[in-house]
Write a structure and sequence with these properties.
Length: 312
Amino acid sequence: MTGSLTTPPQASSPLQLHLTPEQVKKVEINRLKAKARQRASDAASSSSQQTNSNNKRPLDVIPASSTSPTTSKPLKRDSRLGKYFEYDLSKMVNSKGGFLVEDDKEVNEDQRIRERQRERERAMANLEPPFFLDNSLNPKCNECQSVDIDHQYKKVFGCLVCHKCKQEMPEKYSLLTKTECKQDYLLTDRPAELRDEELLPHMLKANPHHSTYSNMMLYLRMQVEAFAWRKWGTPEALDAEYDRRESEKKRKRGKKFEQGLRELRRRTRETVWQRRRDADHQHTFGVPEVGDNGVGKQTCSECGFEIEVEEL
């Protein structure tokens, strides 16, 4: 008999299982999954008792039923607030009209598409045109042949001018308001003049005096002068018409002043005459008329002034 240990022979089972290779593979996979789940459960139970570097328990292992203040709980409704409706603001849409509307994809989908389309159109309108490598293809300034033109002047007025020339030549490229066009060039606000965008294009700009006022309509001086010369013929004719209107305004102001002065003199004379008459008048009272209460009244025979008298 030797002292070495040997493995006992396996007991023969009366039932021998004959498994196919696929069944054996499936059994092995299930066994590995079960072991992985067991290891994960053991790791979670052991990590819940451990602390982190700050000597605190990790938040991800705190159970939902814990009474710890770090756990998130639904807020209790305050009864003092009365009845109110609860809305999910994450599902609300800003209507940009001062109120919120509920998100309704079936109703607002077309509106959202239109808004996105308008935003794309505004973005494309604000883009500057491309700059070509071939210098002959780029638009040039009419004054200095520079390619650094003002694209806003080109888009609104159809005028090719660079920023430098625009600043150095205000007598041609400065902007005029509609009031200045009316006063200096005697233009009117008719559809065939200042209201005609094809004849006199204008640029809209926010009113600097107040944000709620109407937008300013700015015109290019060069285009306004060209239209005024066509309307009045020559600059001398425009100056003559301007002088005639100014003299007519001055004549009307003088006539109105003279009329007011005459009216003031008339009222002054009437007031002085009335004062003198009141100062020179002597009341002439007649016989007193005694009433039931024993008080008498005397009336002036000339002006009708009445006084009360008491007879003793």
